[in-house]
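Note to self: keep these together.
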Amino acid sequence: MKRYLPIALFVFLMGNFAIAQKVVFEEYDLDNGLHVILHQDNGAPVVTTAVMYHVGSKDENPEKTGFAHFFEHLLFEGTKNIKRGEWDQIVSSNGGSGNANTFLDRTYYYETFPSNSLEVGLWLESERLMHPIIGQVGVDTQKEVVQEERRLRVDNSPYGAFFEVLLKNLYTKHPYRWGVIGSLDHLASATLDDFKEFNKTFYVPNNAVLVVAGDFETEKTKKMISDYFGPIPKGAEIQRNEVKEEPITNTIMDTYHDPNIQIPAILLAYRTPGQAERDAYVINMISTYLSDGESSKLYKKLVDEKKIALQIFSVPIDAEDYSSYVVGGLPVGENSIQDIKDEIDAEILKIQTDLISEKDYQKLQNKFENNFVNANSSIAGIANSLAENYMLRDNTNLINTEIDIYRSITREEIREVAKKYLKVNQRVELEYLPEQKDAN
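Structure:
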């Protein structure tokens, strides 16, 4: 049964909630280089322990791709003190939940527990870092898991391959050019020593940030962190190659035939600045304005009004070195992907030529204010924001100030950034088509 708050009470609670968005945190380094961020919030008896490692698919050998994502799975296999299959049991038996994810630049592990199980979370993550078992049984098991994941999410999923196809076109030199899941052939041919070397290189305290957020006692927690993580040896300094891409100066055209679809799609992808750059924030506003959700300009025009598109979508890819803005659509009825592309180009031209209206500008600001509040509405969300802002944007306090960047972006700036990056000759055009039937 639905329950409704009286309006006055709702406004009061939301007002207090918005004020509470100031996130107070403390950060420091252990002698082994592990960066620690603590955010104490005793409002509810829950706590999140999270570790982000500065390793993603871009850190892989081009001949051995898929390792970062593979390790996301492998490091749940067990440790010197945790038997195979026990990790999830330990988490659930202590009333917790957890998961992990990998992207282009980082790998993230986290657990949320009742606050009286904080030590369990710290122990688990220290075990993952200090005593992982990189063994043949675990490697063989997880190879099968990753193979099945690729089949499910990419090979047999409608439109599942578009991310990989776009990346290989957007980048010719940079390691963003291959997908996060990598090559199954590379994983199949990798030796146990290859995996051990990857772990030795990247899973070291000086390549990680530990976040503890929620209900805890600060001094007691610092002591536990020192006890569990302090003895872990510092790793060798990681050498990262800075790879610069040449600008795209001529439209890159590609076609992909997907056996899992019946409706074609058009995708337009633009390479944009890394996520810490101011222009990347402006691109996020442009993406939201043009193509994010049913209130966006393109959706309302192409789906609601002209009814030439079944769907309009955007896929902003925020990353450390470069980001991407991807916009696309699926035609409906007798309409074509060319019709969709023409309409998208017309709306992009408008935003490059004219200032968006004051009304639309204020709607944008309101949406980003709401997104900012929602991102920090849970302890787990705060932990993730703290880790990413420190590691990928080099400014942990963006958890409090990032909204000020969006507030400072002007309508004129939106127009100029659209002119700068959203040019036809600076993009990839991917025609994503149903697989052609054999005439015979």
